[in-house]
Write a structure and sequence with these properties.
Layout (H helix, E strand, L loop, with lengths): L12 E7 L3 H12 L6 E7 L6 H11 L3 E5 L6 H10 L5 E4 L5 E2 L3 H11 L3 E11 L24 E2 L1 H9 L10 E4 H6 L12 H12 L1 E13 L15 H15 L6 H39 L6 H7 L6 H17 L2 H8 L1
Parallel strand pairs: 1-2, 1-4, 2-3, 6-9
Antiparallel strand pairs: 4-8, 5-9, 6-8, 7-9
Helix pairs in contact: 5-7, 7-8, 8-9, 9-11
C-alpha cells in the first residue's frame, strides 16, 4: 500500500539583535535580515532600555513583518546579560547574533545552511566577515585575525581537536557576526554568567564551541562589522586589564570542566590556562614596575616626595619583595641625584 511521505519542515533561524540607543544603525541591521533569501527567520530585537526612538522604529517594522519580535528590558541589564538571555531563549533549529551596528549579506543564511547540509555533524559554520565604515566602505582586514579566513593552513572542516588547536594558534576568526550556530550549542554551552568578561564573552563562547563541536568554514562573505567610535568592534583589549585576565581564566576553566569535551582537549585547556596565567603574572609585574617608576619620577619633578611611599606600598601586591626592595633603592637614588637629565632618560 502506497503511503504519503511528508516533506520535513524547513529549518528556522533565530537572529538575535541586541541594541541600545542606535536606531539608525539598527534599521540597517534589521533590513539586512529581512533581505535574506532564506525566509524562515525569527528576528528577535532585544532593546536594552534605550528610551529613545528604538521602540517605535521596531514596532512599526513589526506591523509589516510578523517575523520581528520586540523585547524591551525594564532597565539596562548590560550588554553581556542582554545577549546571554537571547541565547538562552533560542527555540529554533539555528541561531546567529547580529550587533545593531552590523549587517548581513543576503545569501548568508542560505549558504550557511548548505554548508550544514554538506557537513551534517557540525555545530556551527564560519563565514568571511568584512570590516566596513559607517558608509559601508570596506576597510583593510589584512592584519585583523579576528576576521581572517585566508590563512595558509585554513581547512574547510575541523573536528574539535583540530579546531581547538587552530584557535589556540590564532588561525581562525573569533567575531561571531559571520557565524551560524545550531541550537544545541546554546543549550550545552550558553554564554555563561561571566559578565566581567565584557567584550571577551563572545570569544569565550566561540572557543568553547570549537572545543566541543566540529565546524566548517567558508571564504564566502557572509557579514559586515562596522568600525566606528563607540562600537564594540573598535575597542582595544588591554593585556593588563583585569577583565582580560578574568576572561583568560574563565574561558579555559569552563572548557576544562565541560565533560562533553574530550579529555584530550580538556587537558590542553588546563595546560594553556596554567601557562597563560604564568605569562600574565610576569607581564603584569613588568607593567606595574614601569608605571610605578614613572609615577615616582613625576612626583619627584613636582616635589611631592611625601607621596612616594604610597606608590611603593601600592606595588606590594603585584611584585615580589626582592623586586620591591630594588625599586626602593632606585627611588632613593633618584631622590638623592635630582638630575632632570637622568629622570628624562628613564622616562624614555
Amino acid at each position: 500500500m502506497k503511503t504519503d511521505q511528508l516533506t520535513p519542515p524547513l529549518p528556522t533561524i533565530t537572529t538575535i539583535i541586541p541594541t541600545y540607543k542606535r536606531p539608525e544603525l539598527l534599521l540597517r541591521a534589521i533590513k539586512s535580515v529581512q533581505k535574506q533569501k532564506w525566509n524562515n527567520i525569527d528576528i528577535i530585537v532585544r532593546d536594552n532600555h534605550s528610551r529613545d526612538g528604538t521602540k517605535n522604529l521596531v514596532l512599526n517594522m513589526k506591523n509589516n513583518d510578523s517575523r520581528i519580535k520586540y523585547i524591551e528590558n525594564p532597565w539596562n541589564i548590560g550588554a553581556h546579560e542582554n545577549i546571554r538571555q537571547g541565547i538562552k531563549n533560542v527555540a529554533t533549529d539555528f541561531f546567529s547574533i547580529l550587533s545593531d551596528d552590523d549587517y548581513l549579506e543576503p545569501d548568508f543564511y542560505t549558504e550557511a545552511l548548505k554548508l550544514f547540509e554538506k557537513y551534517p555533524n557540525t555545530g556551527f559554520v564560519v563565514f568571511k566577515t568584512e570590516r566596513v565604515d559607517l558608509s559601508g566602505k570596506p576597510l583593510n582586514n589584512k592584519f585583523d585575525k579576528s576576521l581572517d579566513l585566508k590563512h595558509s593552513k585554513m581547512k574547510s572542516y575541523y573536528n574539535p581537536e583540530d579546531g581547538f588547536d587552530a584557535y589556540l594558534r590564532a588561525e581562525l576568526p573569533y567575531i561571531w557576526t559571520g557565524f551560524l550556530f545550531r541550537r544545541c550549542v546554546a543549550e550545552n554551552i550558553g554564554l555563561g554568567d561571566f559578565s566581567e568578561m565584557g567584550y571577551a564573552a563572545d570569544i569565550a563562547f566561540i572557543w568553547h564551541a570549537a572545543a566541543r563541536y566540529s565546524f566548517a568554514t567558508s571564504n564566502v562573505k557572509g557579514a559586515n562589522i562596522t568600525i566606528h567610535d563607540g562600537g564594540a568592534s573598535t575597542a582595544l583589549v588591554n593585556l593588563f586589564d583585569e577583565r582580560r585576565m578574568y576572561w583568560e581564566r574563565s574561558r579555559m576553566l569552563a572548557i576544562k570542566n565541560d565533560y562533553g569535551v574530550s579529555l584530550v582537549i580538556r587537558e590542553k585547556a588546563l595546560s594553556y590556562y596554567l601557562k597563560r596565567n604564568k605569562k600574565l603574572f610576569r607581564f603584569v609585574n613588568k607593567y606595574y614596575i614601569k608605571v610605578s617608576l614613572l609615577q615616582i619620577i613625576s612626583r619627584l619633578e613636582n616635589h611631592q616626595k611625601g607621596e612616594l611611599s604610597c606608590d611603593l606600598i601600592a606595588m606590594r601586591s603585584f611584585i615580589f619583595p626582592p623586586i620591591l626592595r630594588l625599586i626602593r633603592v632606585i627611588a632613593e637614588i633618584l631622590i638623592f641625584l635630582k638630575f632632570r637629565r637622568i629622570l628624562q632618560y628613564m622616562k624614555s
